[in-house]
Structure formats: C-alpha cells, structure tokens
From TrEMBL:
Pathway: Cofactor biosynthesis; riboflavin biosynthesis; 5-amino-6-(D-ribitylamino)uracil from GTP: step 3/4; Cofactor biosynthesis; riboflavin biosynthesis; 5-amino-6-(D-ribitylamino)uracil from GTP: step 2/4
InterPro entries in alphabetical order: APOBEC/CMP_deaminase_Zn-bd, CMP_dCMP_dom, Cytidine_deaminase-like, DHFR-like_dom_sf, Eubact_RibD, RibD_C, RibDG_C, Riboflavin_Biosynth_HTPR
Keyword Ribosomal protein assigned: no
Organism, scientific name: Pirellula staleyi (strain ATCC 27377 / DSM 6068 / ICPB 4128)
Protein's name in the database: Riboflavin biosynthesis protein RibD
Function text: Converts 2,5-diamino-6-(ribosylamino)-4(3h)-pyrimidinone 5'-phosphate into 5-amino-6-(ribosylamino)-2,4(1h,3h)-pyrimidinedione 5'-phosphate.
Pfam families per UniProt: dCMP_cyt_deam_1, RibD_C
Reaction(s) the record says it catalyses: 5-amino-6-(5-phospho-D-ribitylamino)uracil + NADP(+) = 5-amino-6-(5-phospho-D-ribosylamino)uracil + NADPH + H(+); 2,5-diamino-6-hydroxy-4-(5-phosphoribosylamino)-pyrimidine + H2O + H(+) = 5-amino-6-(5-phospho-D-ribosylamino)uracil + NH4(+)
Residues binding substrate, per UniProt: S178, R194, T206, L214, R217, E303
Record's cofactor remark: Binds 1 zinc ion.
Active-site residues, as the UniProt record annotates them: E62
C-alpha cells in the first residue's frame, strides 16, 4: 500500500480500523478467546504485516503479523485491537514476541481485562523501551469484544435473543403452528448464527410445539449445546433433541420440583441434567448463565418461547436481538406474540436497541441490534 503519515491520529485510527476488520475473521473460531487483529507498519508508513487470531489454541494475531513482517518489523509500529498478552497460556506471551522483533511502538485499542494480563502486557513492553499508546478506536474494539468482555468480567455468556414473527407480531397461529413464518433466506441466516454460538436455548413448551433439532445446517464453525429449560424434567424421549442427545450435547435445566425418576430417565437417554434448586425462576436463570460461563461458553442463542424470552428481558439478561419480520398477518387474540413476562409499565422504561441494523432478507425485514442497558 502507499505510504501514510505514520504516527498521526488519523493514520493510527485508519490502521486500527484495518486491524479490527481483520479481527472479525475469527468470529466463531476463537471463543472463548477474544477476536484480535494486528497490523504492522514500517517506519516508511507501509503495511508490512497483517494477522488475526484464527482459531482457539492457535497463534495470536501479533505473532501471525510478525511472522509476515519478518525483519521489516524492526523499528515498526504495531497496531493491535487488544493489549498483547504477557503470560503463558496455550501459546507463549505475545509481548515477548513483540520485544524480540524490535518493534518500536505499540498502539492498542484497549487493555485486556483478563486477570493474567490486565496491563501486564503494556508494562512489559514499556520496560523494554517500547512506546505504548492505548485507546485508539476503543469503542469499536469494545463492541467487537463485547461477548469476551462479559465472560471475563461477569462470568456469563453473551445472550442473543432471536425470533421470527408476522407483521402483526405473531410467532404462531392461534392453534400453535409456526413453520414457517420466515422465508428460506432468513432461516439460512439463522443457521449461520447457530453455527458460531456455544449454545442454543429454548423452553420445554417450544420443544413440545415445534420438536426442533436445534442444530446448524450445514454444520458451522462450532457445535452448540442444545439447552432446554424444563423445570419439571418432562421433556419426552420421543423428541428429536432427546433422540439425538448422544450425537450432540443436550442440557436439560430443571428446578426444585423435578422428579428424581424423570431426571434419571433423561440422563439415561444421554442428556445432561442441570438441577438448580433456587426458589425463583430469576435466580435459576442467573445460576444457569453463571454455570454456562464457568464452562467458558461465550455466546448463547435463545430461540424462545415467549415465556423464556420475557423472563430474560425482564431480568435485563439479553444483550443482543435478531428479529425477522415476515409480510404475513395471522390475527387472532389467541395467537401468541414473541415476548411474554411482566414487561415495562411506562414507555420511558422500554428497552432500546443500539447499533441498529435493518435489512431486507428475501421477503423478510431483518432487524438486529444490541440492547442499551
């Protein structure tokens, strides 16, 4: 590429935005690690190395970029979307590799809050005489790393709510039929989301009505666990989920009212039963998300039904929303809507979407965004 005014605020932002675009290539491949991108710029202002974290356990972005740059890394500026690690994990510390390569300046978007890093990478670089700057395009980097940041700081996965509904806000007819509300292109997009998350969550009633398989078709980058909230452990062995439990993980989340006999039945069928004994549904949801976080699940897709989505939204536990609106009308007082729960009392209390995107997918309107909390 042509030379750019190296070191100016404008060039720092331009190179960092390129690093952020590179980082996005790791989506669904690197979790529970963060997506990270790196660009190395020579003293002449030319890009001599690019890299991104491409798979969990694989080389980090800085190492990939340094290998591409080779000797041209000496005296360069290294742009990276997250503070270089300073500890031994599945790979050696990136800060050591940066120092050994002779990089003169490191520009990072943000500090890594992971306890074993948390400023340690910057400190190591500075002690080696490398100039370090942080905070360039930090808002964009934080948005990119939001699921990782939530997992590290709160111990819970990023919760993505998804539903398809008609133009009059129905997710099924009055008799419970819902296949298919959205068009084939929308369903293909949903399978793409399924293929990059760690778990797909539904309530037992949704399983009874739709008998879903809850897999990504074709298979995606990850194999998500199928998670069913079933307080009484009444999920039937005849469902597709239970029949395929030995092929792809099924977690059944039960409450204190679940019968031990039913729990044993599901366990013998190949399901993993997670019994939570807290008295309230809200407390059990918190316990569940904490357990999923303990298992290093980074992204969870919630596909319904209305009661589960309502409980999560009431508790302010949803982070991101994907809604597919079909140009169809069902009508009917008994036809269900997508979200139940208590809801809000005042318009001013409504949950609002930020980072809003509105697209047309086939015949559907696709609305997505992140909830402002």
């Amino acid at each position: 590429m042509s030379a750019i005014d190296r070191g100016s605020a404008a060039s720092d932002e331009a190179f960092m935005r390129e690093a952020i675009e590179l980082a996005e290539r790791g989506l669904g491949l690197v979790e529970p690690n963060p997506m990270v991108g790196c660009v190395i710029v020579s003293p002449r202002g030319e890009v001599v190395g690019r890299g991104w974290h491409g798979r969990f356990g694989g080389p980090h972005a800085e190492v990939e970029a340094l290998q591409q740059a080779g000797e041209q890394a000496r005296g360069s500026t290294l742009y990276v979307t997250l503070e270089p690690c300073s500890h031994f994990g599945k790979t050696p510390p990136c800060a050591d590799a940066v120092i050994a390569a002779g990089v003169a300046r490191v520009v990072a978007a943000m500090t890594d809050p992971f306890p074993k890093v948390q400023g340690g990478g910057f400190a190591k670089l500075r002690s080696a005489g490398i100039a370090v700057e942080s905070g360039v395009c930090e808002a964009e980097a934080r948005a990119l790393c939001a699921p990782y940041l939530k997992l590290v700081t709160r111990g819970m996965p990023w919760v993505i709510a998804k539903w398809a509904m008609t133009l009059d806000g129905k997710i099924a007819t009055r008799s419970g039929y819902s296949q298919w509300i959205s068009c084939s292109q929308s369903r293909e997009l949903v399978h793409g989301i399924r293929g990059r998350v760690d778990g797909i969550m539904v309530g037992r009633r949704t399983v009874e009505l739709d008998d879903p398989l809850l897999t990504a078709r074709p298979p995606g980058k990850r194999t998500p666990a199928r998670i069913v909230l079933d307080s009484q452990a009444r999920l039937q062995n005849s469902t597709q989920l239970v029949r395929t439990a030995r092929q792809s993980p099924v977690l059944v989340v039960t409450g204190p009212e679940a019968d031990d006999k039913e729990i044993r039945r599901l366990s013998m069928a190949g399901c993993e039963v997670l019994p939570f004994l807290a008295a309230t549904h809200f407390e059990r949801l918190l316990e569940l998300l904490s357990e999923l976080g303990r298992r290093q699940m980074t992204n969870i897709l919630v596909e319904g039904g209305a009661k589960l989505l309502g409980s999560l939204l009431d508790a302010r536990l949803v982070d991101e929303v994907h809604v597919f609106i079909a140009p169809k009308l069902f009508g009917g007082e008994r036809a269900p809507g997508p979200v139940a729960g208590a809801g809000v009392e005042q318009v001013a209390s409504a949950l609002e979407l930020r980072n809003l995107k509105i697209d047309q997918i086939g015949t559907d309107l696709y609305v997505s965004g992140r909830l402002h909390k």
